[in-house]
Amino acid sequence: MKRRWLFWILIIAFLWVVISRFADIEKLVKTLEGGQWQWVAVAALLQIIYYIVYTWLYQSAFDTVEVRSRIGELLPVTFASIFVNVAAPTAGASGAALFVDDARHRGESPGRATVGTLLSLVADFVAFLFVLGFALIYLIANHALQSYEVIGIVILLAMVGGLIALLMLGLWQPDWLRGILNWIQRAANGLAARLKRTEFLSPDWAQRTTSEFTEAAIAINTHPMRLIRTLMVALAAHAVDLLSLFVLFLAFHEKVDLGVLVAGYAMGILFWIVSITPQGIGVVEGVMTLVFASFGIPLERAAVIAVSFRGLTFWVPLGIGFLLLRRVKTFGAAETTRSEIWSVRLVALLAGVMGIINVLSAVTPSLRNRMRLLEQYSPLSVSHGGHLTSALAGFALMLLAFSLWRRKRVAWLFSIVLLLVSAAAHMLKGLDYEEAVFALGLTALLIYLRPHFHARSDSPSIWQGAQTLLAALAFTAFYGVAGFYLLDRHFKVHFGLGTALRQTVVMFTQFYDPGLQPITGFGRYFADSIYLVGMVTFGYAALMLIRPVLIRHRVSPQERSHAGEIVRAFGHSSLAPLTLMDDKFYYFTAGGSVIAYVVKGRVALTLGDPIGSGDDFVASINNFQALCTRNDWLPAFYQVLPEHLDDYETAGFSTLLIGQEGIVDTATFTLEGSQNKPVRNAYNKIVRLGFTAEVVMPPHPTYLMRDLRQISDEWLTIMNGSEKRFSLGWFDEIYLNSCPIILVRNSEGTIESFANILIENQASEATIDLMRHRRDAEKGQMDFLFVSLFQWAQEQGLASFNLGLSALSGVGENPEDPAIERALHYIYEHIDQFYNFKGLHAFKEKFHPVWSPRYLIYPGAGSLPAVTIAMIRADSGDDVLGGYLRHPK
User: Fold this and answer.
1) Disulfide: which of 135, 195, 319, 783 matches 263 by Cβ 3.0-4.6 Å?
2) What 3-state DSSP class applies to 659?
């Protein structure tokens, strides 16, 4: 919330700057219009290169202090820092803070990032001192040095000296640095106390920051070549900036000597740095104009060049920084912000529209006047090929639009290629420059939005798709050649092998071919079938190229063992033991948590909440969400506890109540009292019939497993079903040999029913998983089994017994509940004949449990059908429709 307010404060400040300087912006536009536009464009291109090199300076400085970063990540921060330094002028500190905060969000050390930011500033200033030195010599030699320029140089030298001293403190005098930071910490926390707020800085902040400063300073001292590289990058940035200024002289047809050029540039940059106005607004232009005019350049022309240079180096980057501000992590930038989502969706829709335009344009005759112009330079056959190419590219773009919606990187690449092909095809088929411009504009938009298309396709499928594509080409060619060669009696033209091959190729490079004249219905069918075969095979290849990442690997014993350690240390729900079943895959977070999940279709369905330290919870769901985004999966969390619903909603998920778990307090459970009479009567009846209950501990003998399997098979037959998975266990001897089992025997000692017991030590709670009985189970036997379980849990000192999920109970009972929950409540009330929801709930209610809600967490309403199907498939153990997961047994 604080960052959001800060963001809007900066926006207001920016608008104030723009409004207050609107006359300057108008002057800039009119000034640039007076220059030769080709040279102005070159100068603008050089400025783009300059900011890329300047960003490289930060990346190199960070690398020197061993902070990982990439130029692509830092470029938006560079532009945003320009914006922040103007909107919140603090002598450059606010812009530098963006780089530090960005590094912190990427998991890097803020202390080291601070040193890296200082190092980049020092390298930039030191490199500029070389340029300034040359300018100073030139000005002195020409008796043109002014007193205000000397003052500016002195201030700059003091700034550079102070920054270098601050860096050196970490290496030579860490105690002094710690003392300074301790003073800052006391002042900040003292201010917090006056404001009656919690401490701004933690008690160990000064010590930790000093340590990080020292480590970074040692890294600089240890890698001098990295330091030299950083300085060279800074020099290169100034060289590019200087070159752009020279190009502006060319744009306005003004000659300039190297000395004058460097002197004007140096003085302008000097007062950009030391001016008391934000970023030297209003000062830089004046100083540069005075310097150029003092060397004989006409005053009006000097002012025009200075204003133009200032516009390209300040106002344009300032606007870009404003646009990229939300891309910076400090202001909550994330790949799933609403604006970015709609940017991706818009470009996907535009790609689909472009596909429709391509197809319509392909079947529309070209304009005659444009065709006459085109015929002077291009043969007619090329225009025909342009029609077909446009149609095929349009069809492909319509297919790819859906994958662009899903942020597929491969679809992004293919779309760019197809749009470029479309632009060329539109020009070749009739100089349709309107469609070509639209295609090129959409290409530029896709390139701009490249960071948002990060969903991977399945790598083996990409290779398989490429092979399929080649096979499709070969098969279609073979199909066409063989057909024309063998069926030439169905056409007026006699086809040999050569002509058959040529005809097949022509059909995919021309919109039509007058030479192909079928004389029978079968001939016409065959000619059309070539396109059908090509579309089917190419379409299949495209689907293979863009389908989501599939999991093929098995979970290693080491991974399962590591997951078990985390579950035993942090698991506190009835589902925790089931996360170790071998149908699960695991995602381990850097904070020591584990998420157990399966992938069904595009849905990565997790069982319960992430298991681990509470401090790592938010990072766990965010990191798992990022993993799913990269793999083109939809993340969903099944049967989560109510404690972290706010965290899920903050991460952008929707929540749905799906039922309640009944939890019996074993300490207070009793059969006494009138309300327990039905259970007591059933229990006493079974006891009178000679039934007994016994809990046996693992490992279990082979003969017992044989008897239990017989009961299990009989129970499955009664239920007319098969083993369930995911949120339930299944009959597996290895699994059953890991847990206690309660056996219910009749008076003859025969086992009539059983249930395996799962114990969650962190919650001091027991539950059961498999509960199975013979076909003719005595009525009341299940009541007897549960009462026996409660008594056993009391003896073991367990605090509670979990009866498991009562699906749909408590869902949608209130009029203000969401519509989807009310719909589920209707199912609960009226479709009981399909699944005994109410009967199961009534059975559990007999034991008077405390009901605890359980939720489904899913990405949004649009994903709910896919998530529902995934839950069904996961529950049924479906591995056939997907066909991609291979679980060890």
Assistant:
1) 135
2) strand
Give the pLDDT confidence of 527-573 residue by residue, as tens digits: 666 666 666 666 666 665 555 545 545 778 888 889 989 998 888 88
Please say whether the beta carbons of 384 and 512 come within 8 A: yes
453 in Cβ contact with 409 (< 8 Å): yes
Per-residue pLDDT of 757-798, as tens digits, reads 998 877 788 999 889 998 888 888 999 999 999 999 999 999
Q: Could you write out the DSSP letters of every residue in 376-436?
A: TTS-HHHHHHHHHHHHHHHHHHHHHHHHHHTTBHHHHHHHHHHHHHHHHHHHHHH--HHHH
CA 389-392-395 angle, to 5 degrees, is: 145
Structure tokens at 246: 């020279």
DSSP 328: S
Q: What is the mean pLDDT of residues 811-815?
A: 76
Mean pLDDT of 333-360: 71
CA distance 663 to 669: 11
What are 286-310's pLDDT values in tens digits?
A: 888 888 888 888 888 888 888 888 7
Position 766: which residue type?
Answer: A
Whether residue 64 contacts residue 218, with contact meaning beta carbons closer than 8 Å, is answered with no
What is the dihedral angle through the alpha carbons of 317, 323, 325, 327, rounded to the nearest 10 degrees? -110
Find the length of the chain. 889
Q: What is the pLDDT of residue 757?
A: 93
d(CA 559, CA 568): 14
Q: Does the CA dihedral 363-367-370-373 come out positive or negative?
A: positive
Residue 510 has pLDDT above 50, yes or no: no
- Tokens in use for 816? 């203000």
Q: Alpha helix locations (H) across 589-699?
A: 617-630, 645-650, 677-688
